[in-house]
Design goal:
single chain, 302 residues, Jelly Rolls, 2 helices
């Protein structure tokens, strides 16, 4: 189910184009910078591709791989699933030819890049893991490619795990313009992609468990989405407030956020919907959900 803006909700399989199970280019999304591909490899599988004008990551969702780029061999240990562990990953620069060999499912977040950085490996142990919110708004954020955690030209990416029955991406927030407010708040202009997986389900299973995602706009820039998402589904957020992301009781929810924008300095600056920002103040009197962290060690939180 979804309400209006149906192009914002892209179920698993609807953007597939060999060799990609999911292919979201800036052109497909109708914007300029952010992209996402998902690669499914059988045992002994191999794919070779060019990055073109995009920088990319190879992020194991389930499985392990070896990545060859610029005469480097980067071995990814990976993980059994997004709910099992934090993973290592590889960075791929623009204007590179890449070969990925392995077995499993791999996300390749991307962004149009102006600088060509070096390909490199990032270890799982170096990923900052944050427990954010409290009570039923508790969630885990793996800040593996946040601006202060890993260097890229424009690409920003994080993972969020929401325990069953909880809400994340809450209070709803937006980042649709570069702006400094009189009250000291700062907002960055960012395009954003949400890629979902749901515990107990598999991408492409029409009878699998579900979660829900809300996106809504302002009078000046209307957008109205309430989508029922299954594993492998994508939500595009060109602008507007997004949140909550809702995990159904009984089913943990995962999403990969991919963000990119025009500013030369990477940022995740956002502003809350003023009607709901007060919720943050209520967290001081609530404990973090004891089920967290769902995957991997915690290295500080907020």
């Amino acid at each position: 189910m979804s309400t209006r803006n149906p192009d914002a909700h892209l179920p698993w399989g609807t953007t597939a184009r060999a060799p990609w199970a999911v292919e979201i280019t800036p052109e497909r999304a109708g914007w300029t910078y952010a992209g996402l591909r998902v690669l499914s490899l059988p045992q002994g599988g191999q794919v070779t591709f060019d990055t073109g004008d995009e920088e990319m990551l190879v992020l194991p969702l389930a499985g392990a791989a070896t990545v060859h780029c610029d005469r480097l061999r980067l071995v990814l240990t990976g993980r059994a699933s997004v709910f099992a562990a934090v993973t290592d990953f590889a960075y791929l620069p623009r204007d590179a030819t890449v070969t990925v060999r392995g077995e499993g499912r791999f996300a390749l977040p991307s962004a149009r890049a102006t600088r060509r950085l070096s390909p490199r490996y990032a270890a799982a142990r170096d990923v900052p893991v944050e427990l954010r919110g409290a009570g039923p708004a508790s969630r885990q954020v793996n800040n593996f490619c946040a601006p202060n955690a890993f260097d890229c030209d424009r690409l920003v990416a994080v993972e969020v795990l929401t325990p069953a029955g909880n809400w994340s991406s809450y209070p709803p927030h937006k980042h649709e313009e570069d702006r400094a407010y009189d009250d000291g708040r700062v907002e960055a202009e960012l395009e954003e992609i949400y890629y979902f997986e749901v515990a107990g389900g598999a991408p492409g299973d029409p009878d699998g468990p579900v979660g829900y995602q809300r996106v809504y706009g302002t009078t000046r820039r209307p957008i109205d989405v309430l989508a029922e998402v299954r594993g492998g589904d994508v939500i595009l957020v060109p602008y507007g407030y997004h949140g909550p992301s809702m995990a159904a009781p009984g089913y943990h929810l995962y999403y990969l956020n991919v963000l990119a924008g025009p500013a030369p300095a990477r940022s995740m600056a956002c502003v809350d919907d003023p009607r709901h920002g007060w919720i943050r103040g209520s967290w001081a009197d609530q404990p973090i959900d004891p089920r967290l962290p769902l995957a991997g060690p915690t290295q500080g939180g907020a």
